[in-house]
Amino acid sequence: MISLRNVKYVYPNGTVGLKGLSLDIEENAFIGGRTGGGKSTFLRVLNGLIPNFYGGKLEGLVRIEGRVFFVCQNADDFIISSRVYDEIALSLLHSGHDWEEVERRIRKVAKTCGLDLNKEVSKLSDGEKKLVAIASALAGDFECLALDEPFANLHPKVAKKILKVLLKSGRLSVVSEHRLEFAKYFDEFFWIDDGRLSKPPKLEFRLVKGRIEDEVVVKVESVTFGYDEPLFEDLSFEVRKGEVVAVIGENGCGKTTLLRIIAGTLKPWDGSVEVKGKIGMAFNFPNYHLFESRVDREVDAELLRRFDLVDLATRNPHSLSFGQAKRVAIAKAFRGDVVILDEPTAGQDYEFKAKLLNIAREMGKTVIIATHDLKLAECCDEIVEL
Amino acid sequence: MKSSSFEPRTCILSVILLTLSAYSFRIDTALAITLVTLIFNPKRTLKGLKISLPFLLFFAVISLLLGGFEKIPTVISLVCIGCLLNGISAEEFGYTLMGIGVPPKFANSIIVAMRMFQIILRDFELSTEALRVNGERRYHLKLLKVLTSIAVLRAFSVAEALYSKGFDFDKKVVRFRKPEVKDYLLLLLSIAIFCYTYPIRSVL
């Protein structure tokens, strides 16, 4: 059981995280809310990262029965070990379990989550990394699991499978997510916005129509590529000017790899890729793209306005939350003629899907999106399934 | 469970012997070391040599001008020896160190430091790719800015992850793996190179 009464929190830099949050969680709970609304701050309060690790000023009453295991939003930030096996073993070993027990638990959780224990973490896709992070949470003996956007990079099939395991694990699961389609599986639903509990807003999803020209700007012809073995063979498709194309497929099927081939950073084993115009790309981890000291130096005024970044204009891009930084990186990618985006809706509000597509269509951009968000994919002009 | 290309104890011992041999600055020893590492660890050695190529070229040019060109094979062999260590996973290396009596605080710090290095190396690769794809000008200065910021963020996120997982720097975790034929062979060849470089007669 988790109980919070009038909890207020101010980060050491003066940013207000929570503004009097009160709630009781008795059963598996789904936490919704806008980007930067305080969901991640709330989850960090649950396992004591706030205030013990972050510092700052925490006020109010926090009552938690049992220990909480927290998995942060970006799996890259969570995974420390070099191999899947070692990563799951880490928290178990430091909880005092012997090797025999560690081995038993790892085998069990790997079977449940469908993980290859020998795989190197650096060779995993973002979704697979997320799966490893969730697996290490499930392997431990914590009474409560606090997961920040656990399904953001997972294929719906895998997400549902993990969800089942989570809900049947007999522990209290508190999940913060933007993919609201998963809310129905939980016993309780909360909406945290502006640092406090609030009513969920009416979510609008209005799409504008774009103008697709006949000119082909991206031509992928008979492409074959893989690392140790082929990921895809003889893949061909075309993208016309002004078209928005979604690339979908299961975790680790090669979506990001395909984007990198289109961007020209990977050379296909066979086949060819032709791109007309300047490329703008945003990886899943946004900070790789940010090097200026202020957001308004990264992105011009028009894109700031279109992507609702005006309020963040004077902030240092690296001081932003994952979702906010991601939005800046996406806005920056829109300077290109052909925009390539990897999981753009991870860490973003539910309405961002519509906003992203509308901006692309209003600006006449050609966009290629790798995503697990099937709602977003359905709204695109074309779908390429790997 | 096997996680490294080499068994850490035999590998560490081989690295010590080969390094001592390399510091004799003999060309035949350097060639033997390079050959052995290329046979036992071909992929990592070639990758390591490729990455260090600018440094090796720089060293070659400087030594042509100032002398010491005959030291180049030794420098190459030292790079190859470093690649052998790269074949051991950070965790297995740390668990082995604790097993041979190194204090847990030190060994655990080595595990975290080795992983941090690998994580930042990956960040370097991806940041370079991100800047190149987007056609950024004055690319190296921007890369430096991105990497500096990311290194700070990574240090913070690794610390947060360690806290979340209840990582205890004083926790002693020991695990040894049985060496394979390959490990024994590497050790034997390292001993042979060492004995060839420093014959017992010359020591006596």
What's this, in brief?
The complex is a heterodimer of chains A (386) and B (204). By secondary structure, chain A is of the alpha/beta class.
Describe the overall structure:
The complex is a heterodimer of chains A (386) and B (204). Helix content of chain A is 31%, strand content 27%. With 386 residues, chain A is an alpha/beta fold. Chain A folds into 2 domains: 2-198, 3-Layer(aba) Sandwich (Rossmann fold); 216-385, Rossmann fold (3-Layer(aba) Sandwich), CATH 3.40.50.300. Chain A has a 6-stranded mixed beta sheet with strand order 5-6-7-3-8-9, with helices on both faces. In chain A, strands 14-15-16-12-17 form a 5-stranded parallel beta sheet, sandwiched between helices. In chain A, strand 6 (144-148), helix 7 (156-168) and strand 7 (172-176) form a beta-alpha-beta unit. In chain A, helix 4 (84-94) packs across helix 5 (99-113). The longest helix of chain A is centred in the first third of the chain and has 15 residues, at 99-113. Chain A is globular and about 60 Å long. The termini of chain A are far apart. The model of chain A has no long low-confidence stretch (mean pLDDT 89). With 204 residues, chain B is mostly helical. Chain B has one domain. Chain B contains 10 helices and no strands. In chain B, helix 2 packs antiparallel against helix 9 (181-197). The model of chain B has no long low-confidence stretch (mean pLDDT 88). At the A-B interface, helix 2, strand 5, helix 4 and strand 14 of A face helix 7 and helix 8 of B.
